[in-house]
Amino acid sequence: MAGSEGRSNRSYVYLFSEIPLVEARVGHDWDKVKGFLGGKGANLAEMTRIGVPVPPGFTVSTEGCNAFLNAGKTFPAGMWEEVEEAVASIEAEVGRKFGDPLGPLLVSCRSGAKFSMPGMMDTILNIGLNDEVAEGMVELTGDARFVYDLYRRLVQMFGNVVLDVPDEVFEAVIARRKEESGVANDADLEAEDWKAITGQFRDLVKTYSGMEFPTDPLEQLHMATEAVFKSWTGKRAVDYRNASGIPHDLGTAVNIQTMVFGNMGDDSATGVCMSRNASTGDPELEGDFLVNAQGEDVVAGIRMTQPIAELADIMPAQHAEFEAIARKLEAHYSNMQDMEFTIERGKLWVLQTRDGKRTAQAEVRIAVDMAEDGLITREEAVRRVQPDQVDFFLHPQLDREAQRTSKPLATGLNVSPGAAVGVIALDADTAERWAQDGRDVVMVRPETKPDDVHGMLAAKGVVTLKGGRTSHAALVARQFGKPAVVGADALVLDFEERILRVGDEEIAEGEWLSVDGTNGQIYAGKLPTAVPDLQNPYLLKILEWADEFRRLGVRANADYPRDAERAREYGAAGIGLCRTEHMFFEAERLPIVQRMILATTASERSEAIQELLPLQRSDFAGLFRAMHGLPVVIRLLDPPLHEFLPAYDELVQDLADLKMRLQHYSTMSEIDAALQEIRTKQDFLARVEALREENPMLGTRGVRLGIQIPELTRMQVRAVFEAAIEVKREGLEVIPEIMIPLVHLSKELELQQSDLEEEARAVMEETRAEIPYKFGTMIEVPRAALIAGELAARAEFFSFGTNDLTQTTCGISRDDAEAGFLMHYIRNGIVEHNPFAVVDEAGVGRLIDIAVRDGRAVRPDLELGICGEHGGEPTSIALCHRLGLDYVSCSPFRVPIARIAAAHAALAESE
Amino acid sequence: MAGSEGRSNRSYVYLFSEIPLVEARVGHDWDKVKGFLGGKGANLAEMTRIGVPVPPGFTVSTEGCNAFLNAGKTFPAGMWEEVEEAVASIEAEVGRKFGDPLGPLLVSCRSGAKFSMPGMMDTILNIGLNDEVAEGMVELTGDARFVYDLYRRLVQMFGNVVLDVPDEVFEAVIARRKEESGVANDADLEAEDWKAITGQFRDLVKTYSGMEFPTDPLEQLHMATEAVFKSWTGKRAVDYRNASGIPHDLGTAVNIQTMVFGNMGDDSATGVCMSRNASTGDPELEGDFLVNAQGEDVVAGIRMTQPIAELADIMPAQHAEFEAIARKLEAHYSNMQDMEFTIERGKLWVLQTRDGKRTAQAEVRIAVDMAEDGLITREEAVRRVQPDQVDFFLHPQLDREAQRTSKPLATGLNVSPGAAVGVIALDADTAERWAQDGRDVVMVRPETKPDDVHGMLAAKGVVTLKGGRTSHAALVARQFGKPAVVGADALVLDFEERILRVGDEEIAEGEWLSVDGTNGQIYAGKLPTAVPDLQNPYLLKILEWADEFRRLGVRANADYPRDAERAREYGAAGIGLCRTEHMFFEAERLPIVQRMILATTASERSEAIQELLPLQRSDFAGLFRAMHGLPVVIRLLDPPLHEFLPAYDELVQDLADLKMRLQHYSTMSEIDAALQEIRTKQDFLARVEALREENPMLGTRGVRLGIQIPELTRMQVRAVFEAAIEVKREGLEVIPEIMIPLVHLSKELELQQSDLEEEARAVMEETRAEIPYKFGTMIEVPRAALIAGELAARAEFFSFGTNDLTQTTCGISRDDAEAGFLMHYIRNGIVEHNPFAVVDEAGVGRLIDIAVRDGRAVRPDLELGICGEHGGEPTSIALCHRLGLDYVSCSPFRVPIARIAAAHAALAESE
C-alpha cells in the first residue's frame, strides 16, 4: 500500500495488496482476474485480501507477458520502471533493501499462468544475493552454511533457467565435492563447501554462457523476469498446452515475492499440503513437510518427507493456524486447495494456493461432501465430475484372485488408482512409439520430468522409482487419469542393458508388467483384469444428481441378457440397440445359419430359418425379462450374409492344400475322403464367391437382405412377439421397438412394415394377446437423413447409426482407414478428431440436424436416439443434446459416463 | 345439333357438334378438352367445328369412364339415358334409325383416351346389325356379300372384345370355309359363305360365352360401351401405360360414330395417311389406301396397299380434297397429322386425326420446317425434339464397309432407323429375359401385337415378317426409337425347332443377327457398328436454336485428344472432366506406374514419377490444343493404387500354379527360372496385399493419395503447366482448371493447394510465362456438400461427381448393387429410377442444393458443374438447371443430347 498512490500510470505491475486496482481494471469476474494475474498471482492477491499471511510481493501481468512477446521479447516501454517502483514498495513494507548487506531483500521470481501447468514453467529463488549481501547475511544470521547454500541455489537456478547451463554440470560439481569431502549427503556439506561450490558455479556460468553471473540484484530480477516470459514459448510448455487443450495466447504472469526460509533452523519448516486427501477425497489435510528445508526439497522427493499430521506434534500452534487457513481458503474458493507453506523461525507463511489436482475418486467424494456441506450447489458438484473421471470407476482393476496368488515385484505409493497392464518402456519416446504401434505400454522411469509427459500420455500406466504423492509423476498421472505407482524404490533401472532389476530378478524392456495404482503394487507379467461393479456411494450420489439435471435419456447397446442386466444396474433406461445377428454367431447356431445361406431350394432355406426361431425367441425373452418395464430396441438382421461363412482367401488356400495333399494319398478310401472334403469346400466357396462384394459396406445387407428374404424378417418378428407374450404372461411389462437397418428409401420401410405388421398380428391372434410396440428405422446413410420427413411418416422412431453414417458421409471405410490414411491424417493434424471417436459435427452432425427437424415436422412425437459407438463419448453426447435427441445408447460400461455427460450438456445449456 | 336443346342435364355425353358445350364445362384449354373427350373424340369434335367432313357421332367422356369404374363397372345414373338421347339426335341428323331395316343406322364404338395408345384399346364396328337389318340392307344395297361380311365382322369383334371369345376360333371357321370352298383368299368367299359364317359365329358366341349374341342394336351398343370402358383396366392397357408413363386415372372416352364404308364398290376406298413423311419428315403426304375395303384391312397389313399418291390417279377430286384437309388440319393443330379416311361412294369422310408418330429424323425436320414456315415458334420446335431423339442421330449404324462386303439375309421395310445387333429371340418373353441377363437381343416375330410390346422394349431392334409402314410393329418401334425392319417376307419362322430360315439357310434362336433399320437390310452374324458424325442439317439447326435458349453450359468428359476433338465438334464448351489416371493405364506406362507403386525407396519412387512427367505433359498438351480457348478441367489422380496392379486372386492362383509346376521340373535352370518368377509374383502379391482394402470405394484414393504422395501431385501439376505453356507458345489460348478428387475436409484442399501453387509458380518462373488457372474440388462425398461453405473459401469451382456421391449418399456400391439388390429393387418397383442413371433428387439432389447455396454464399462467382454420368441424362440435366448449376459435363456422344435437354429445362422454367 505504501507508495502505491505515487505510481499512477499503472499498466503491467500490481502489488498483491492491490487487487482492488486490478478489479477496477478487468472487473470482478474471477476468471478475468486469473487471466490477468495468472492463477498463482491472483491467489496470492486474493489470500492477501482475506488476511492469509502471504509474504509481500507483486505480479507482472499476463498482458505484460504478451506485450513482451509482441515486442520481440523485450520489455515494452514503462514496464521495467513499474517493476522498480513495486520493488521499492516492498522494500518499504518489509524494511529491507535490494543489495543492502545490513538488511537485504531477497525475492523469488516465478511464472504463473491462468491455468496451472505444474513443473512446466520456471522459478528462480533467492534473487538479491551477491558476495557482499551474502557476507552481510552471514553476519546477520550467524549461519554461513545456510547463506552459501542459498547463494549456490541462486546461481544454479539462474544459470540453468536464465542462461541455459545444463543442470547436470552443477550437480556434478556437488557430487565431486561430496566425494572429496567423503560425505554421502548434501546435508553433510559445510559452509565452506557451499561457498566454494558457489564460486565454482559462477565460473561454470561464465564458461557455459560467456557472461558473468550478474551481481546487481535488479539486473538479476530483470533477467529472471525475461526468462520466465520466454519460457511460455518453450517446447515443454507448448507440448503441455497442446496435451491439455490450453490456448497458446494466454501468456504467463510473473510473481515476484519476498523470500521466506524454511531452512533457518529447527523452528523453520516447509511443506505442501492439500486441504483434503487427493487420492480418496477424505476431508483431512494431506501433505508432506520437512523441518529446516526449502520448498524444492519437498517437491523433488529427494529427502524423506513427514506427513502433515506430524506437524501437529512438532509445531502444534502453526499446525492449528494452518488448518484454519486451509478451511478458510476452501470456503473462499469453494474447492479443495493445494497449498505451499513455509514456517520461518516460527512464523507461518502461505506461499501459494490453487485448486488441488485429485483422482477421480477424490473428485467425486469432494464434490458430494462439499455439496452436502453447502459449500457448492449440486449442479456445481455434478459439473465438477468429468465423464472421464466416471469412466475411471469402470476402469479395469487387477483381478483380485490373480493378485492374491501372485507375489508383488515391488510396492510404491498408490498415487493414481486403476490397473495398468502393458509392456515395459524405459523412456517416453519408446513408450510413445510402441503405443502408436498399438501396444499397451507401462512406462517405468527413475522419476518424471516435464520432458516425459508425452510418454505418460501414451502409456497405460506409470511407475517411478523416486518421488512422493506430490511428485511430478503423481500430479500428472492423476490429472490425466493414468494409473500410477511412484517411489517404488526396490526397483533398479539398468539403462545400458535396458533391464529392470529387483533383487536377483531381471525383467527386460518390452516384457509385461502389471501395475495396481489403487494399492501401489507392481507385478511381473500380464495379470488378468476385471471391471468392478458400481458401488462407490459418492459416485452413485453424483449420478443420481446428474439424472435430475439431464434431459437426454441413456440406453445401452446390449445383445445378451447378461449385458442387459449390467446395463440396467449401471442406470440404462432401456436397450437402444440389440444386434440380433450377434446371436447368429454363437457356436450352436452358426451351422444352421450357414445351412440357410447355402440352401439351394426354398424349402431347405425355410427349414433352416424355422430352426432359428426357438433360439431367437429365447434370446429375446431373456432381454425382455432383464429390461422389463423399459423399452428394448431390436434391430433386424444387418450384416451381409457372407460374414457367416468362412473367408474366401481361407477357403481358396484350404482347397489348394487339399488338392496338393491328394497327390500323396495312396488308398482309395483316403482319396475318397479327401474328395468329399474338397466337394464340401467347393460348395462353400461357390456360395462365398456369389456373395462376395467389391464394397461390402455398401452392399447387400440390412433391409436389403430383409426385402429379399422376407421369411427371415418374419421369423425374427415372430420370435420377438412370441418372446414378448411369454414374458408378459410372467407378469412383466414388455416394450419392444423393432428397428429396420440401412434404410435409404421409404418404400423399404413400407415393405418391411407390412410384413412385420402381418406377422405381429398373426402371433397376437394365435395367442390372443396384445403387445404394443413401436416401429422405427436406423438412419445410417445420408439419404435416410435427407428424406427423414418421408421416413417419419412411417417410422415412430429414428436411431442414428453414427458409425455407418460417418463412413458414408465422409466416404471413409472404418476397416481400412483406421489402419490407413486416417491415421496419417490424425497424426499430422489434418483432421482434428477421429470421426469414428467423436461425431463429426459439420458433416454427420448437420445431417442429424436435418433429420431431426424434418422428422419432427412430420411426426412431433418422433422418438430420436443415437446408437453408434459415439453414444458413450462426451463431446458427441453434448452434440446430441444440442441437436435435441431424446436419448443416447452406448455400451453398458459407458452408461454412467453418458449419464454425467448428458447432465453436463444440460447444465451447459442452462448457463 | 338437333335435339341438343332438349337434353338439358348434360353430364357425360356430347355430340361431335357440341364442342362449345364441352368448352363451357371444362374451359377452352385444349389439354382439358382432350382430357375430357379423349384425344380422338376431341379431334372429331374439333374437325367438325372447322368444317372437316366427319361422320356424325358423339362421345361418352372420360369422366363417364371413371364414373363407370367407380360405380363398380356399371353405368352411373342417367348416363345410359344420355346415350340414348344422343343416338336419337344422330338418327334425326342422318335420317336413319337403329334397327330400321328400311334405313338402318350402323355405328362404330371406339375407345379414345387423352394420350394415344395405338392398338392397346378396343373397337367394335357395324353395331346396329341383326338378321332383320341385314336383310333390309341387302335389299337397299343389292350387295349381300358386303352386308354379311359386315355382319360377321360385328359378331366377330363383339364376340372377341365384349365376350372374350378367342379370335382364333373365328379365324378357324373362316379358314375351314375357304378350304371347303376351295378358295385361297377371304375376298373369294361369296355372300352365302359369309352368311353361313355369321351363323356359325353366333353359335360360337353362345358356346364360348354362354349367352346369345344380342340382336337389339341398343343392347349391342350398351355392351360395347361397357367393354371399352373395361378395357382401360385390362392388362395390355396397363402395361402400355406403365411403359409410356401415362397416368392410370385418366380413363378413356368412348366414341360412337355413324359407320361409313369404303367397301361399297370401286368408287369407295379407305386409307391412313400422314400429312408428312413419318420416316424422313419430307413435307409430302405419306400413306396407304385400298379401294373397296374397310379400314382394318389397311392397318392389318394383309392386303397389299397402294401408296397415297396413286389416289390422285384413281380419284383426283377426292385426293385434292383430302390434301387440302390435311394442310388445314396441320395448320389447325400446328403439328403433323395422322389421319384415317374413307371414301363412300365418292364422298370423302375423315374418320380420325391425331398428331402423327414419327422417327427422330422426321421429328427434327418437321420441327425445323414448321418453325421456318411460321407454323410454330422456334421454342416450340426445340421443345418438340426430345433428347432421346437427338440420341438417335448418334446411335450406331452398321459399318458401311462391313455392310458392303456382306450379303443381306433379307430386306424389308425400313420403318425405324438405326442399327441393332443382337441375338435372335423368337418371342417377347425370351427377349425380355435375355435382355435382363444383359444380352443384346433382336426380336423376330411374324408380326407384333400389343402383347409383344414388352419384348420390343427389351430388344435392341425388331424384325417382323409381315406388316407395313403403319403396322403395329412400325408404329411402336418408331415411338420407342427401336431400329426395326418390317415385312421381311423372305424369312420363315419355325417355332418348333426355334429356327429362322431363309431359303436353305438356317439360323437358330440365340445366334447373332444384325439389322439396319435405316435401309431395311438384315444380316446374319454380328456386324460391326459405327457412330456417325453429326451432319443432319435439320438437327444442326435445332441444336443451334437450343443453344440460344439454354442457360446451362455443356462440357464433355474426355481423357484423350481424339475424344476432346469429337466433343468440340459436338458442341462441348470445354472439358468438364479429364481423368488423368486413364492415361496411366496405357500399355507403355503401366510398367512405370507399377514401378512407382512397388518402389521400396523414396528415390526409386521419385524416379518412376519423374518418368511419367513427359508422358503426362504430352497428354495434356494434346487436350489443350484440341480445346484451345475453352476451359479444361483436369482431375488429379483418383483411383486406389491397387487398380494398377494385377488382381489379388489372380496372383494367388498364378503362384499356386507355379509352385505346383515346380515339382515337375528336373533341370536346375528350369527350377531357377521358376523360382525367379515366383519371387517376382510374390513381390507383387505382398504389395497388392498391403494395398488391399475391405471397401476400396471408401478407402485410400483421390486426395488421400495426393496427400500421402505429394510428389505425385506435384508431377501432375508440373505436367499441366509445362503443357499449358508449350501450347500457349503456339499461339493458342489455354484455360486449365485443376481439380482435387474425393475431398471431405477443407484441410485437404489447403494442403493440396499449397503444393499446387508452389509447383505452378515454380514452372511459371522457370519458363517466365504466366498461365491463369482455376483451382477447384470435386464434391463426391456427402460431407463435402455439407461443408461446401468452408470449401468454397478455397475452391474456385465445384464439380459434383454424382456417381460417387450417389454411392455414398445412398450407401450403395455400384459395382455390387447393379448386379445385386438394386436390380431386385428396380424390377420390383421399390425404387423408381436406377439412381446411377437418373440423379436421385430427394437425396443427392438435396445435397447438391445445399452445396450450391452454401458455396455461392461464400463465393458468389463459384463455378458449378456436374461431371458424373448423369451429366448426359435429360431428367438429371433438368434438375441441374433447377439447382442453378453452371454446366453439365458428359461423354462426347451425349453432348448434343445435353444441349437439347438443357434448352428444354430452360424453356420449362420460362413456361
* Poorly predicted residue ranges of chain A: 1-8
Count, helices of chain A = 38
Q: Give me the secondary-structure category of chain A.
A: alpha/beta
Largest contact between protein chains?
Answer: A-B, 52 and 51 residues
- Overall mean pLDDT of chain A: 90
Annotation keywords:
homodimer, about 15% strand, 38 helices, alpha/beta, about 900 residues, elongated, eight-stranded parallel beta barrel
Would you give an account of this structure?
Two copies of one chain form a homodimer. Chain A is elongated. In chain A, the strands form six sheets. Chain A has an eight-stranded mixed β-sheet with strand order 12-22-21-14-15-16-17-13. An eight-stranded parallel barrel of chain A has the order 24-25-26-27-28-29-30-31, surrounded by five helices. With 911 residues, chain A is of the alpha/beta class. In chain A, strand 21 (512-516) and strand 22 form a beta hairpin. The two termini of chain A are 38 Å apart. In chain A, helix 5 (131-141) runs antiparallel to helix 6, helix 14 packs antiparallel against helix 15 and helix 25 packs parallel to helix 29. At the A-B interface, helix 26, helix 28, helix 30, helix 31 and helix 33 of A face helix 26, helix 28, helix 30, helix 31 and helix 33 of B.
Brief characterization of the structure:
Two copies of one chain form a homodimer. With about 900 residues, the first copy, chain A, is an alpha/beta fold.
Helix and strand topology:
2 copies of one chain form a homodimer.
Chain A: E1 13-15, H1 19-26, H2 30-49, E2 57-60, H3 62-70, H4 79-94, E3 107-113, E4 123-127, H5 131-141, H6 144-162, H7 167-181, H8 191-209, H9 217-231, H10 235-244, E5 252-258, E6 269-274, E7 286-291, H11 295-300, E8 306-307, H12 311-314, H13 316-333, E9 337-344, E10 347-355, H14 360-372, H15 378-384, H16 387-393, E11 397-398, H17 400-405, E12 410-411, E13 413-416, E14 419-425, H18 428-436, E15 441-445, H19 453-458, E16 461-464, H20 472-479, E17 484-486, E18 492-494, E19 499-502, E20 505-508, E21 512-516, E22 521-524, E23 529-530, H21 537-549, E24 553-557, H22 561-569, E25 575-579, H23 580-584, H24 590-598, H25 602-626, E26 631-635, H26 648-662, H27 668-691, H28 703-708, H29 710-729, E27 735-740, H30 746-767, E28 774-779, H31 782-786, H32 788-792, E29 797-800, H33 802-810, H34 814-817, H35 821-827, H36 841-858, E30 863-866, H37 874-882, E31 887-890, H38 895-910
Parallel strand pairs in A: 14-15, 15-16, 16-17, 24-25, 24-31, 25-26, 26-27, 27-28, 28-29, 29-30, 30-31
Antiparallel strand pairs in A: 1-2, 2-5, 3-4, 3-5, 6-7, 6-9, 7-8, 9-10, 11-23, 12-22, 13-17, 14-21, 18-19, 19-20, 21-22
Helix pairs in contact in A: 1-2, 5-6, 6-8, 7-8, 14-15, 14-16, 14-21, 15-21, 16-38, 21-38, 22-25, 24-25, 25-29, 26-27, 29-30, 37-38
